[in-house]
Amino acid sequence: MAGFRNGRGRENRPPQGQPQQAPYGYDAAPPPHARQQWPQQGQGRPPYGQQGAPQAGQRPYDEPEYFGDPYAQQHAVTANNPGHTQVFSVDDPYGPATDHHAGAAPVPTGPRLPWKALLSGIVLRPADTFLRTRDHAVWGPALIVTFLYGLLAIFGFDRAREEAINATLSTAIPYVLMTALGFVVGGLILGAVTHTLARQLGGDGSWQPTVGLSMLIMSITDAPRLVFALFLGGENGLVQVIGWLTWLAAGALFTVMVSRSHDLPWPKALGASAIQLVALLSLIKLGTL
User: Fold this and answer.
1) Would you write out the chain's pLDDT as a tens digit for each of its 289 residues?
2) Contact 207/262 with Cβ under 8 angstroms?
3) DSSP letter assigned to residue 262
4) Distances (CA, A) of 155 to 147, 161, 234, 274
5) Helix or strand or coil: residue 202?
6) Which of 81, 112, 199, 214 has a beta carbon 3.0–4.6 Å from 191's, enabling a disulfide?
7) Minimal CA–CA distance to 154: which of 144, 166, 167, 163?
8) Could you tell me the CA-to-CA distances from 91 to 30, 94, 95, 99, 154 in Å, in that order?
9) Is the dihedral of CA 270, 246, 192, 288 positive or negative?
10) What InterPro entries has UniProt attached to this entry (predicted)?
11) How much is the pTM?
């Protein structure tokens, strides 16, 4: 009865199923059926196969195999902590990622083509030549070839040839030089228009190679018509047929050049060259200059 009077009795006992608190200074006994506490980070464990027999009072903890190795889970948790960096790699079945823009054409390598290889390559190897020169300016060959073409182009038109022949030498020379300069300026303007249209259609090429190559294409493709026009006149039927054929060849070369220089599909490349082709057809190929 004294225990009930002092406040100690049935109500002060711990609830059923909970461990009784040990007196101060004594370690509490482990609760029955307690879950095994795995060692924390930094606590070692004897290697597998070197674990000794359990000592007196020590209770071995055997787990079924389907629980897995708890130390493997601990390694996975501490793998990326300082001092425990885990090295791994992921294989990409599609290969390394690369930037893709405007068709992702390969960037040409190698030195600039000499002028002989450039001029012959435009006729014999246009695709490879335009690809190799897409990042190289060709101002020297373009200006010289276009200027020489302009000096002879005036004699390919009947009216302009008569005016140049009938004029005095002091008058004919400036007239021919101005015509040659006009061809150079016209080639620069038409090439710039082609480059601008190509960039608006999604091209990524530089303006210097585009303008220079367009001037070379204009001059080289019209050379066969000009040779016959010097002797037969610009209004001759054969000269007209040659003019149409060389104009189609110029259209094909312009398309390949813009496609390689700006990395565009051929329909867009042809569309970018449309204004220049129409100007060449009406002013030069048909002899209406």
Assistant:
1) 444 444 444 445 555 545 555 555 555 555 555 455 555 544 555 554 455 555 544 544 454 544 455 554 554 455 555 555 555 444 444 344 333 344 444 555 568 889 999 999 999 999 999 999 988 899 999 999 999 999 988 888 878 788 878 878 888 888 899 989 999 999 999 999 999 999 999 998 899 999 999 999 999 999 999 999 888 887 888 988 998 999 999 999 999 999 999 999 999 999 999 999 999 888 876 554 4
2) no
3) H
4) 14, 5, 9, 27
5) coil
6) 214
7) 163
8) 48, 9, 8, 19, 66
9) negative
10) Yip1_dom
11) 0.62
- How far apart CA 289 and CA 278 sit, in angstroms, is 14
Contact 237, 227 (CB under 8 A): no
Helix axes 237-262, 223-232, angle to 10 degrees: 160
Structure tokens at 112: 């600039």
Phi first, then psi, for residue 191 (nearest 5°) are -65, -40
Element spanning 125, H or E: none
Residue length of the chain: 289
Residue 256 corresponds to which tokens in the numbers above?
């390949």
**CA dist list (Å): 40 to 43, 71, 286:** 6, 10, 91
Alpha helices in 126-204 (DSSP H): 126-132, 139-153, 158-166, 169-200
DSSP for 66-124, written as a single string: GG--HHHHHHHHSTTSTT-PPP-----TT-S-----TT-PPPP-SPPPPHHHHHHHHHH
Token pair for 240: 């007209």
Tokens, residue 82: 């300082």
Are 213 and 257 within 8 A, CB to CB? yes
